[in-house]
Amino acid sequence: MKEVLNSKDQKQVRNTKSALAKKLGVSRGMLYYRHKRPVADEKLKEDILKVMKDNPGYGHKRIALELKLNRKRILRVMKKFYLMPKRRRKQGFIKPDDLGKEETEYLNLIENFCPIRPNVVWVGDFTHIRFRDSWVYLATVMDIYTREIIGWYLSVNHTKELIINAFLDAADKRKTVPVYFHSDQGSEYESDEYLSLLEKEGIIISMSRKSSPWENGYQESFYSGFKLDLGEANHYQDLGELIEAVAKQLHYYNNSRIHTSLKMSPVAFRYSREYLFKELGT
């Protein structure tokens, strides 16, 4: 009789632990081995710190992808040891200078687009970087299929040549032009020289509505992370060092930095798609 009671008691304990484990969202085995967690957490803390050192802008989602672990576990350990990634810069979603402008004749034609191959939609934008007592301007072109920066140009002058040269750099590297090119309504993108260049190539021009930079969110998001990873520009001794740092940062973004939508870097994603299409014979 005693053995029967013990068996029932043991079954009741198992059922109770199963219910508790389900409520906590962990396996039942975790409740038996909690004494091992502090050691495992210390080891994971060191792994997280190494990833954060190599990738200062990574939050818990990218760290989880890098370590191939559950993101909830990564977040729990980061909170436990107060591990905080660099904060992204706040994005200004309104451009006051655009508020008084008339609407452009070009519409946003890529809204809700989801390209299934490269060179369908390229998007362009530029940003400014404070350096010493002046500004340096960086223009970039991104293929939204791979999120890869395929062309860029850096200048101390804020002119239409900035975006034209970035576009020419992308066209030269890709040896082709896109079906659509999207940008905001900045005066550079509405210049006769720039528009004539795209129209001559037979490219369909798309533009965000005025004062709506979120409609070019691919580039907005890129610059937010890029400036965070680049750090303080005045740390560099001269313009040459800054240009080298920008080039290295763009290479890092394309080849190493995990994109949360792609679950890998843009270049790795492009290679994986090329391999897939080759296997499918398309």
Structural account:
This protein is of the alpha/beta class. The chain folds into 2 domains: 2-80, no CATH class; 96-280, Ribonuclease H-like superfamily/Ribonuclease H (Nucleotidyltransferase, domain 5, 2-Layer Sandwich), CATH 3.30.420. It is 48% helix and 13% strand. The protein is built from 10 helices and 5 strands, in the order αααααβββαβαβααα. The chain has helices spanning 2-24, 28-32, 37-54, 60-67, 71-80, 160-174, 192-200, 217-230, 239-255, 266-280; strands spanning 121-131, 134-143, 148-155, 180-183, 204-207. A 5-stranded mixed beta sheet has the order 3-2-1-4-5, sandwiched between helices. Strand 1 and strand 2 (134-143) form a beta hairpin. Helix 4 (60-67) crosses helix 5 (71-80). The longest helix is centred in the N-terminal third of the chain and has 23 residues, at 2-24. The protein is globular, with a radius of gyration of 25 Å. Mean pLDDT is 86; it is low at 1-5.
What attributes characterize this protein structure?
single chain, 282 residues, alpha/beta, Nucleotidyltransferase, domain 5, 2 domains, 5-stranded mixed sheet, 48% helix
Brief digest:
With 282 residues, this protein is of the alpha/beta class.
